[in-house]
Amino acid sequence: MTEGRVAITGIGVTAPGAVGTKNFWSLLSDGRTATRRISFFDPSDFRSQCAAEVDFDPEQAGLTPQETRRMDRAAQFAVVTAREAAADSGLPFSDVDPYRIGVTIGSAVGATTGLDWEYRTVSDGGRLKLVDHEYAVPHLYNYFVPSSFTAEVAGALGAQGPSTVVSTGCTSGLDAVGHATELIREGSADVMIAGATDAPISPITVACFDAIKATTPRNQDPEHASRPFDGTRSGFVLGEGAAVFVLEDLESARSRGAHVYAEIAGYASRCNAYHMTGLRSDGREMAEAIRVAIDEARMAPERIDYVNAHGSGTKQNDRHETAAFKRSLGEHAYRVPVSSIKSMVGHSLGAIGSIEVAASALAIEHDVVPPTANLHTSDPECDLDYVPLAAREHPTDAVLSVGSGFGGFQSAMVLTSPERSGA
Amino acid sequence: MSTTEFTVEDLKRILREAAGSGDGVSLDGDILDIDFEVLGYDSLALLETGGRIEREYEISLDESAISEAETPRALVEAVNNDLGLAQADPVS
Amino acid sequence: MNGRNSSVVVTGLGIAAPNGLGNRNYWESVREGVSGIGRISHFDPSQYPSRLAGEVKGFVPEEHLTSRIISQTDRMTQLALVGTDCAFADARTQPSEFDEYEMGVVTASSSGGFEFGENELRNLWSQGGQYVSAYQSFAWFYAVNSGQISIRNGMRGPSGVVVSDQAGGLDAIAQARRQIRKGTRMIVSGGIDASLCPWGWTAQLTSRRLSTSSDPNRAYLPFDAEAAGHVPGEGGALVIMEDLASAHERRAPNVYGEISGYAATIDPGAGVESATSLQKAIEQALRNADADPAEIDLVFADAAAVPELDRAEAEALTKVFGVRGVPVTAPKTTTGRLGSGAASLDVATAFLAMRDGVIPPTPNVRIADEYDIDLVSEKRESRAGVRNCLVIARGIGGFNSAMVLRDSNQSSGR
Question: Where does the Ketosynthase family 3 (KS3) domain lie (chain A) (predicted)?
Fold first, then answer.
């Protein structure tokens, strides 16, 4: 990494149980869970009936009725969260050449929720095979191609530089930030608005995860249904939300006196070339992504102070990931705290990777490691220090955040404290 | 439907519809005791197959019945158990 | 490490287009201006205001793929898997000749496996949640082609998926170039799309950019006074990209040329069309390629066929290249606009044009007086050769991407 160094100077988070970065961090540091019975529609006919929903009022969040109408919920999250990040960064956007500001928004499933409900309308409840276009909403194209999310964010913040949506399933949130980091390093942009959003809690998504039994059927106890690394875990809890960052070249951030949360020191993504949904238990490809990311950060694995795990709470993932940590970090895997915030905010598919980057940056900021909630029962195959139940004060200068997703993608990112980066 | 016995031929038909064929041993011969893995059907294919069996026969298979059935014989028996035909010979 | 400025070349093409499945069939059609646009046959389009599309004909998935794969994939993924096979064959190599971590996949998507999704939405709403397929969780989503290509070919290197509407095809190739420069030897990139199903059609109609003409020769007429929207299509191209040194090392027989420059911008504000931001993307791409406008021999236009968009594109081209300063063509008028497949198909076409010194035409268009561009309406043979091409791709939402391609004779000393 001989090129420019990239810093996070602004953070916005819209998460279940916590709209806004401050609320998000207090939820995590209190170890509170935001999972509950699905309230957006009647989930009685579905196998899994829990989710981590955001209590989101678009008007209160500053969107005009017109914006609310034309945007899918995921796009609304993206715009509101990007505005929070922009304000938090203190960057005078109007002083920056708009062509030097780009946008990379990640999303796994785009405007699925909008598409789901609109399909119901134009097909008359699934009755019409040749759906009736006369009933289509005028902004349906924005749901059809989710690059509209990035277009909305760019428009809201006046960005005119390189802009795209990154959609690599459940690693989208890490990959979008990784992509943006590369654009700054190579000199294609000075500032990137990067993050991810998803709002998938709708019947089609719940049904498709039911069909492969990936989500938990622990419906009688939704508040404690997301149980990463716990011996009684039975699948993930679907979530929603967004996190967006302002990324800048570290030197220029310093010279304008910006607050630097963390540096993005290393990043890599790998395909497992194995299975669209399954994972090999040996964790080989994730270990490879971790190895390359740590290598790019030019540090020894022992320097990692905290591992922000994917920890989805499926039987298979948590085993796979534990194996990957051991394979890539060696003995250090047994010493370093590892936790999954999905225990509290659920699994928001593409968005969660960015939400976890936010948690990682805030762990560095506060020297506190967020816990894995609901972890009571040990699993012999998950034998690391998962920080059960309560957050832990812990000097945190380097964090490894990882993700794993359908399509067979594994990604890893290393964040380091600005102090370590040397002033 | 629920009085009809579920045979290995029914299973073959549903397997083909649900997950096609071509990645493993042919379904044409005696496959009762050949592992699904050898036949080229992974857990995803079996979940799709299980879902279709449940819909067609209006039953609700125990979740472990699908994940633990390693061979066609085991799955046919599990389905017939659910159909109340536990005694039937799956080979028919 | 291949290095930040090392040459990244294209060594294999896998084309699936409405006017030709396979590289040779396509090139024979497109160089003669033979169109693949016709009335939709995938479904009955009678009730819709637009009824023409570019459908890939003669594609029988069973001839190429096992029923095991077919049952879990959308048509766009089937086309992409076969397109990848073709690209490898054209590159005279196969995945087994590379280390698994040396190979990556970066594709573009625009709407995912939309037809697969439509069928499952119908199952959901007409019959209930338990009728939704176990494959729905990945068969429709945007990352499916990258995932399935990597699995089928055992590629364990970097992965990526970008969505920027029609501009995505270039953005994916640019990202692949980035990954090769960071050290990956070979990447499959580009895009193949297909959403010609009633639900996808309904969604595309709401863009208000679809032609309602019923005459395949008069329906998609960019830069024409009669321009009134475009015709959608399906297909695209996947390409094999390699580091030049590594391609030489394995004696790759077809080094089509180099991805020499790229840049992207976005228009200010949703729906605000701007010639300036497109011009900026073109200029930055030329700078990135270290090329003068005068070195560009041919431009592949985005060719929206919406008057204000055509105007912005013609204006940007005139500003960069001067009045009728460079030949401009839009062979996509023979395929329809292919979503994320469009721009990578233009890249493939540009390399074929460079190989043969032939400029494929934009048939049927009578250029309107207001546009000061040299639109190629008849095939041209270029004695001097086609050495550098510019490909422009614009996406709804204001995405502007520009890519410069250099022919293989120049791709050695850089």
Answer: 3-417
